[in-house]
Amino acid sequence: LMGRCRFAAVPSSDAxxxxxxxxxxxxxxxxxxxxxxxxxxxxxxxxxxxGEDEQRNLKICIIPARLEPVKGLVPFFGLLTPEMLKGWKIxxxxxxPLKSEIEAVIAxxxxxxxxxxxxxxxxxxxPRHYAAADLLLLPSIxxxxxxxVIEALHSGLAxxxxxxxxxxxxxxxxxxNGWVLPVLDKEAFTAKLRVxxxxxxxxxxxxxxxxxxxxxxxxxxQGAIRRFLDGVL
Length: 233
Fold this sequence. Notes:
By secondary structure, the chain is an alpha/beta fold. The protein contains 9 helices and 8 strands. β1, α1 (13-26) and β2 (32-35) form a beta-alpha-beta unit. The chain starts with 6 loop residues before the first strand and ends with a helix. The relative contact order is 0.16.
């Protein structure tokens, strides 16, 4: 089937590598990968104006994720400490079978005052939540192409995404607009989380501006479609 196509629309560099892997295994020519990233309506998402919430000292981290094992939430909260989260409020948005287990881990770690779980947020309200936050974090163990990362970039947020999530190469410039989290290495993962949560609010805002200006460019709708058509035609 792959051999009958001249081109393959791929959403990210991970998908392009996947086609290359098949070529190595089969020794047969594969279609040429042409990028067509997963897109959102970027006009719905606005970054906060500089100084808009300068009176708020609390830093807000949002995690929009289903409460399922692949999202890595139980081991993630199991690494956090009250000292690590001073000055932070983590807002976990999602539903799923692991809610009770997540709540138990949060209580055991003594971080209940730093974490709020919101069962359900209508999609229409998500732009407001992104605009109020300082950081998007996804501790996923497996997450092929999370649209929340793209929405966060358009919203001008710093991002912390694991190396097991799709779009990470395009979404994160390490130390510039966010961090890549080595989720399968507990020691390295914990160390990186300490760096993330030790980051000052002003620095997070600066990183968020780079997300909006530089990293979100890959997912700007008109440009992405134009590049795809140029690649095919």
